[in-house]
């Protein structure tokens, strides 16, 4: 009987450990180890900093599409790729947005765009800028959402937008908003994630909470993941830098679409070649992604 008790205790500890430290966060249905692995892959030297129009960016695009196909997450309008061109200085760039789609179960005519950019700074002076936090972290967070939707289909239709050329002036999101595929009046919200994997104070900012009354209601009643502080700010109403137009959510804000931008304060490796996988904060990152999914879950239950 004594041995049986010890065996039962060991089994319970193993189950507990697997739940909290193993493969899947069962409550929010994303693979926490894969969350890290995707960042590690996309921020590796093989992708040469994912500069728009380079071989590294094309590798990243193919990686994203292949993963969406592997988990059987379909494209928007029959095609994952939305190609575009733009000029900057004397150079013409070719970019590609990657667009995934899942149809809503209750309000399919209304769409929420979840976005992150997959490009980064590329190679400068022979040094690779890998962009782990900026923004491989947001790309992998979108993968986590895709996994979540497999077990928890959203009530609104959802577009997963992996934007290109953010670092060159938000070009991918600008092009999407100008050529939206889904009419703009059918898009009720943009949730953008850009730099969500590290902060020494365990603080994650939510910008745009005041862009729609539903967002304020969710924020005020949001259940925070233990160990993480979610702060509404950087929106022009406090004394901090205004991030309303700092990333791809700006393209939606400019056409009056409500938005929430999740991101962290700039850190010592921001836009430096030291923004590597080894410098992200894994526990904070997992908590941030879970908190954003919880936020979405509440928003998705509302009527816009």
From TrEMBL:
Keywords: Hydrolase, Signal. The keyword Nucleotide-binding does not apply. The keyword Hydrolase applies. GO terms for biological process: proteolysis. Residues 1-22 form the signal peptide. It holds the Pfam family Peptidase_M28. Residues 97-292 form the Peptidase M28 domain. GO terms for molecular function: metalloexopeptidase activity. This is M20/M25/M40 family metallo-hydrolase.
């Amino acid at each position: 009987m004594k041995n049986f008790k010890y065996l039962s205790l060991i089994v319970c500890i193993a189950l507990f450990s697997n739940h909290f430290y193993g493969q899947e966060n069962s409550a929010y249905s994303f693979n926490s180890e894969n969350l890290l692995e995707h960042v590690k892959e996309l921020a590796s030297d093989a992708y040469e900093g994912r500069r728009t129009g380079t071989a590294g960016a094309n590798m990243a695009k193919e990686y994203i599409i292949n993963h969406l196909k592997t988990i059987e997450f379909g494209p928007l309008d029959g095609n994952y790729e939305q190609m575009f061109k733009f000029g900057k200085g004397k150079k013409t760039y070719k970019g590609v947005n990657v667009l995934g789609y899942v149809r809503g179960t209750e309000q399919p005519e209304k769409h929420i765009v979840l976005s992150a950019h997959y490009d980064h700074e590329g190679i400068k002076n022979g040094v690779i800028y890998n962009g782990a936090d900026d923004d491989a972290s947001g790309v992998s967070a979108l993968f986590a959402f895709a996994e979540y939707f497999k077990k928890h289909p959203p009530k609104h239709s959802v577009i997963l937008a992996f934007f290109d050329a953010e670092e060159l002036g938000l070009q991918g999101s600008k092009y999407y908003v100008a050529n939206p595929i889904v009419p703009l009046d059918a898009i009720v919200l943009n949730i953008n994630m850009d730099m969500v994997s590290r902060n020494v104070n365990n603080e994650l900012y939510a910008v745009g909470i005041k862009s729609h009354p539903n967002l304020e209601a969710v924020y005020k009643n949001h259940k925070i993941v233990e160990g993480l502080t979610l702060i509404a700010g950087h929106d022009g109403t406090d004394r901090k830098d205004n991030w309303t137009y700092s990333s791809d959510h700006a393209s939606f804000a400019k056409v009056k679409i409500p938005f929430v931008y999740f991101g962290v304060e700039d850190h010592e490796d921001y836009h430096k070649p030291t923004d590597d996988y080894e410098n992200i904060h894994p526990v904070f990152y997992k908590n941030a992604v879970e908190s954003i999914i919880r936020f979405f879950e509440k928003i998705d239950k509302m009527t816009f």
